[in-house]
């Protein structure tokens, strides 16, 4: 599978999301990653389905919605109606992840399951047949701009082995050009990147977004010597 770069709009200008999304897609983003936080499952608040609905017309690629909320089930229909393409729920968010993932697909979205740095890969193995994507968190969820947690990397190879070649394995948190290659070598194919994509640019001067995306993609796909 080709490597996809999914900028997290958590690092974009909150007053200009529509323009930021159009700028980062024009600069080469493959997907747009939308971080939904509830102040309960994670210690931060961001946005809900109404914001996703407002962003939808600005996204030409894939709206990749990362739900850091608990419970999940009462909100699935709203995010599906808002236009989410991929809807990812955390395995730690409740006791019935199997039901949640079935409900996400029934609502018309591609289901994803995310796991925190402290959660072993085995926790999602029983639901791999239900998902299109596993999101391996390489920071503790809740904030952008945190340091990458190395100890999550061995989980990627385990999940690639269990999930086969068609499963998307997404890495989220602290991704940059300096670790992209190791992540892809381990089996990842989707790299979420917030601060390392939006750093140095703006809607008025979006060229750095393109330079940052190209740097990550080049590092991820370079031939090792
Ligand atoms: O889900 C999350 C954080 O909880 C991520 O999507 C971050 O928003 C990624 O930001 P960087 O670590 O790349 O700055
Ligand atoms: Co995220």
UniProtKB/TrEMBL annotation:
<feature type="binding site">
    <location>
        <position position="66"/>
    </location>
    <ligand>
        <name>substrate</name>
    </ligand>
</feature>
<dbReference type="GO" id="GO:0006098">
    <property type="term" value="P:pentose-phosphate shunt"/>
</dbReference>
<feature type="binding site">
    <location>
        <begin position="172"/>
        <end position="174"/>
    </location>
    <ligand>
        <name>substrate</name>
    </ligand>
</feature>
<dbReference type="Pfam" id="PF00834">
    <property type="entry name" value="Ribul_P_3_epim"/>
</dbReference>
<feature type="active site" description="Proton acceptor">
    <location>
        <position position="35"/>
    </location>
</feature>
<dbReference type="GO" id="GO:0019323">
    <property type="term" value="P:pentose catabolic process"/>
</dbReference>
<comment type="function">
    <text>Catalyzes the reversible epimerization of D-ribulose 5-phosphate to D-xylulose 5-phosphate.</text>
</comment>
<feature type="binding site">
    <location>
        <position position="8"/>
    </location>
    <ligand>
        <name>substrate</name>
    </ligand>
</feature>
<dbReference type="GO" id="GO:0046872">
    <property type="term" value="F:metal ion binding"/>
</dbReference>
<feature type="binding site">
    <location>
        <position position="35"/>
    </location>
    <ligand>
        <name>a divalent metal cation</name>
    </ligand>
</feature>
<keyword id="KW-0413">Isomerase</keyword>
<comment type="pathway">
    <text>Carbohydrate degradation.</text>
</comment>
<dbReference type="GO" id="GO:0005737">
    <property type="term" value="C:cytoplasm"/>
</dbReference>
<keyword id="KW-0119">Carbohydrate metabolism</keyword>
<feature type="binding site">
    <location>
        <position position="33"/>
    </location>
    <ligand>
        <name>a divalent metal cation</name>
    </ligand>
</feature>
<feature type="binding site">
    <location>
        <position position="66"/>
    </location>
    <ligand>
        <name>a divalent metal cation</name>
    </ligand>
</feature>
<dbReference type="InterPro" id="IPR000056">
    <property type="entry name" value="Ribul_P_3_epim-like"/>
</dbReference>
<keyword id="KW-0170">Cobalt</keyword>
<dbReference type="InterPro" id="IPR011060">
    <property type="entry name" value="RibuloseP-bd_barrel"/>
</dbReference>
<keyword id="KW-0862">Zinc</keyword>
<feature type="binding site">
    <location>
        <begin position="194"/>
        <end position="195"/>
    </location>
    <ligand>
        <name>substrate</name>
    </ligand>
</feature>
<keyword id="KW-0464">Manganese</keyword>
<protein>
    <recommendedName>
        <fullName>Ribulose-phosphate 3-epimerase</fullName>
        <ecNumber>5.1.3.1</ecNumber>
    </recommendedName>
</protein>
<keyword id="KW-0479">Metal-binding</keyword>
<feature type="binding site">
    <location>
        <begin position="142"/>
        <end position="145"/>
    </location>
    <ligand>
        <name>substrate</name>
    </ligand>
</feature>
<dbReference type="GO" id="GO:0004750">
    <property type="term" value="F:D-ribulose-phosphate 3-epimerase activity"/>
</dbReference>
<comment type="similarity">
    <text>Belongs to the ribulose-phosphate 3-epimerase family.</text>
</comment>
<feature type="binding site">
    <location>
        <position position="174"/>
    </location>
    <ligand>
        <name>substrate</name>
    </ligand>
</feature>
<dbReference type="InterPro" id="IPR026019">
    <property type="entry name" value="Ribul_P_3_epim"/>
</dbReference>
<feature type="binding site">
    <location>
        <position position="172"/>
    </location>
    <ligand>
        <name>a divalent metal cation</name>
    </ligand>
</feature>
<feature type="active site" description="Proton donor">
    <location>
        <position position="172"/>
    </location>
</feature>
<dbReference type="InterPro" id="IPR013785">
    <property type="entry name" value="Aldolase_TIM"/>
</dbReference>
């Amino acid at each position: 599978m080709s490597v996809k770069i999914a900028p997290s709009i958590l690092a974009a200008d909150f007053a200009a999301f529509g323009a930021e999304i159009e700028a980062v897609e024009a600069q080469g983003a493959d997907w747009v990653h939308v971080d939904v936080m509830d102040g309960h499952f994670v210690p931060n608040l961001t946005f809900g389905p109404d914001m996703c609905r407002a962003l939808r017309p600005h996204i030409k690629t894939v709206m990749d919605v990362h739900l850091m909320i608990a419970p999940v089930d009462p909100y699935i229909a709203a995010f599906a109606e808002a236009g989410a393409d991929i809807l990812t729920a955390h395995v730690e968010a409740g006791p019935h992840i199997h039901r949640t993932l079935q409900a996400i697909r029934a609502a018309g979205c591609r289901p994803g399951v995310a796991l925190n740095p402290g959660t072993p890969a085995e926790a999602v193995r029983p639901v791999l047949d239900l998902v299109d994507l596993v999101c391996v968190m390489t920071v503790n969820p809740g904030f952008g701009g945190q340091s990458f947690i190395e100890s999550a990397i061995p989980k990627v190879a385990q999940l690639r082995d269990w999930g086969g070649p068609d499963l998307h394995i997404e890495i989220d948190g602290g991704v940059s050009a300096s670790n992209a290659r190791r992540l892809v070598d381990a089996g990842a194919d989707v790299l979420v990147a917030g601060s390392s994509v939006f750093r140095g640019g703006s809607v008025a001067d979006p060229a750095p977004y393109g330079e940052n995306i190209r740097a990550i993609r080049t590092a991820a796909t370079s031939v090792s010597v």
